[in-house]
Amino acid sequence: MQFITKLFHTAQYFLPAMLLVACGGGGNSNSPPVTQPELALLAGCLSCYGHTDAIGAAASFTGTGGVATDSAGNVYVADTDNHTIRKITPAGAVSTLAGTAGVSGSTDATGAAASFFYPTGVSTDSAGNVYVADTSNNTIRKITPAGVVSTLAGTAGVSGPTDATGAAASFFYPTGVATDSAGNVYVADTGNNTIRKITPAGVVTLAGTAGVRGHADGIGVAASFFYPNGVATDSAGNVYVTDAGNYTIRKITPAGVVSTLAGTARVSGSADATGAAASFSYPNGVTTDSAGYVYVTDYGNHTIRKITPAGAVSTLAGTAGVFGSADATGAAASFRYPYGVATDSAGNVFVADTGNYTIRKITSAGAVSTLAGTAGVGHADGIGAAASFKIPYGVAADSAGNVYVADFGNSTIRKITPAGVVSTLAGTAGVFGSTDATGAAASFQSPFGVAADSAGNVYVADFGNSTIRKITSAGVVSTLAGTAGAFGSTDATGAAASFIGPMGVATDSAGNVYVADTGNYTIRKITPAGVVSTLAGTAGVSGSTDATGAAASFSNLTGVTTDSAGNVYVTDVGTIRKITPAGVVSTLAGTAGVFGSTDATGAAASFSYSNGVATDSAGNVYVADTGNHTIRKITPAGVVTTVVGVAGQEEFQPGALPGALARPSGVAIRGTSLYITTKTGVAVVYNVP
After folding, report:
1. What is the 3-state secondary structure (H, E, C) of 46-66?
2. Three-state secondary structure along 447-484?
3. Residue 4: enclosing H or E segment and its boundaries?
4. What does the pLDDT read at residue 558?
5. Cβ proximity of 234 and 180 under 8 Å
6. Average pLDDT over residues 474-498
């Protein structure tokens, strides 16, 4: 489920106004007045990641995705957030095979002159070629051993499910890629919920039907998947798929017969058992070895799982619910959101430990070591740059000037005072769960969205639990709606209601809570009494239809906000949608399926995977355009401008606007200040234009 993974990114800032430090600049509400718009650091550390080519721990990565090996023992990594493909020799020497850090694009060229756009999956063939799922370009790329990059299938910026040859084929957010001995390439076409095969004659759909999500075992198009992420092959021609949204591992025979190897659809957990009795939590990467064993990165559990040909599942390394960066053996080792996985001929397993920005190695005996990179994020409470976060996503501000952050990677809710003092409001770093309690005794499962109301309460879209949580000003956590682990689309009251992977949450002046129910493609409304209804969209139906209520459709909802008139605004991939109090849905800006960075009016404007959204008192809408590394402003008339950052420039550059941002994801506004969660921290724009 790409929206759970990459979704990858996080934390930063503070110091007296106008002062620049190594990590950036800062300011607070007691600083001398700032008369011009200015970007500064509020809390966190912006140097906790990087793109250094070096040996071992001296190297650095940012938001790694897939990993693959070749017959010579080299390891290839999709350095997702850097838009590059990296190579690691058996001695741990890291180099950049293709692309340039911080430069996104779709250029076919050699080495540093080529460009990618959030590449995720990576695989190799026997000739030494590297294949890349260039996720945000919706293409499959090929890199020769000499570093020559070409586009094997698809066209950058064009999404769809078309089976065809080369550029005429289309994909929708492909994330996994694998090869077989016959030279075929297999693709986990995540956004289409299908598994695709690229032969010399062109692209065909091997299993699943575009736009149909489910968990049916069958042959070819009769089968169904729910956000398949990883794909791998074995020597017998079978294809293995991590069906992330279903929490299962699927198997496809050469004849196209789809079965479930391990896990039960929509049942999450960490049980080691055989077949349907085993359980996973958002499995992502998958690979095989010569003996027919299957290895899986169990992203939500922070573990590496091993599956025998008979479907017996065991935990190779790590302990479910415990994250960290410990090098040790078996359960004593720890990971943070492991994503990509690969094996070599000697039986070693390599892991892209995304949350730690490292590449790990596991021997056949389960001994874990760090091959390259240094773990560089954390959960420190402190002032400004002394604080640290791990993938902060949602951000909200209250009337007193406090800022609240959903610290996704740490599964905590953080609070930042106007003076830049960071504390943990609720939850404990590294402890995952769904416990309703006070402060550190409460627990969350990868919280994504956060909102505040006028009474000082904080609401959380608890993504991993598929619930909506409420935190009082005293830190008392309760579950407002939904039941942890119970996934669905039921409209009801409190625990009887159900959601699937909610990502965005917002409040209005009447005390209602609005939810971007991402997995259901719907916008839900919760009254102060906890009564849940569906405001717009129909569960299980994805699309981009402007209409009223259930007749409208959405594709990939992430952010949600409201204005003083009771309208609701949502970010829907490359568009910004508006919903009136009567449930009438229209597209305020952007066009479905069209990605870019164009400033224009309405449908002529374009975005690249927008996430957070906020409104000001004048009715303007501000959008965190994550893929472009910018903040966009939309007037009530639909006029779009870029107010912070430069499209395609991924870094933090404080000072006079436009400045520069690194993958902004959440946005909130209070008065004339705009708060932004970025890759590793929180930034602020004073006197936002």
Report:
1. CCCCCCCCCEHHHCCCCCEEE
2. CCEEEECCCCCEEEEEHHHCEEEEECCCCEEEEEECCC
3. helix 2-5
4. 87
5. no
6. 95
- Taking a C-beta distance cutoff of 8 angstroms, is the pair 622, 636 a contact? no
Helices (H), 57-171: none
In contact, 406 and 460? CB cutoff 8 Å: yes
Q: Is 2 helix (H, G, I), strand (E, B) or coil?
A: helix
Q: Are 555 and 542 in contact (CB under 8 A)?
A: yes
CA-CA distance, 621 to 440, in Å (whole number)? Answer: 35
List CB contacts of 671: < 8 A, sequence separation 6 or more. Answer: none
Nearest to 139 by CA among 62, 95, 198: 198
Q: For a pLDDT cut of 70, what percent of the chain falls above it?
A: 93
pLDDT at 680 over 80: no
Residues 6+ apart with CB under 8 A from 161: 170, 171, 172, 189, 192, 194, 205, 210, 211
CB atoms within 10 A of CB 439: 16
Average pLDDT over residues 589-593: 91
Helix (H, G, I), strand (E, B) or coil at 7: coil
Displacement of CA 121 from its chain's centroid (Å): 14
Res 25 pLDDT > 60? no
Which H, E and C letters describe 188-247, residue by residue? EEHHHCEEEEEECCEEEEEECCCCCECCCCCEHHHCCECCEEEEEECCCCCEEEEEHHHC
Phi then psi for 569, rounded to 5 degrees?
Answer: -120, 140
Name the average pLDDT for the chain: 88
Cα dihedral: 235, 239, 243, 248 (round 10): -60
Angle at 70 between CA 68 and CA 72, to 5 degrees: 140
Q: Is the pLDDT of residue 14 over 50?
A: no
Q: State the Cα–Cα distance between residues 6 and 352, nearest whole angstrom.
A: 13
Give φ, ψ of 314 to 5 degrees. -135, 165
The model scores a pTM over 0.90: no
Per-residue burial over 247-277, b if 16 or more Cβ lie within 10 Å, else e, is bbbbbbeeebbbebbbbbbbbbbbeeeebee
DSSP SS3 for 80: helix
Q: How large is the average pLDDT for residues 450-473?
A: 93
Alpha-carbon span 408 to 449, nearest angstrom: 9
According to DSSP, the residues that pair with 241 across neighbouring strands are 231, 250
pLDDT of 45 over the 60 cut: no
β-bridge partners, 560: 570
312 pLDDT exceeds 90?
A: yes
With beta carbons less than 8 A apart as the criterion, state whether 674 and 667 touch. Answer: yes
For residue 500, count other CB atoms closer than 10 A to its CB: 22
Q: pLDDT value at position 652? A: 82
Residues facing residue 342 across a β-bridge: 350
At residue 49, the pLDDT reads 63
Residue 444 CA to residue 437 CA, distance in Å, equals: 11
pLDDT at 34 over 60: no
> 589 in the Ramachandran plot: left (φ > 0), alpha (ψ -120 to 50) or beta?
beta
Q: What is the pLDDT of residues 126-176, one digit of tens each?
A: 999 999 999 989 999 999 999 999 999 999 989 999 999 999 999 999 999
Q: pLDDT by residue (tens digit) across 546-569?
A: 999 999 999 888 889 999 888 999
Is 236 exposed, middle or buried (CB count within 10 Å of its CB: 0-12, 13-18, 19+)? exposed
The phi and psi torsions of 394 (rounded to 5 degrees) equal -70, 150
Report the pLDDT averaged over residues 457-480.
95
Dihedral angle over CA of 228, 229, 235, 237, nearest 10: 30
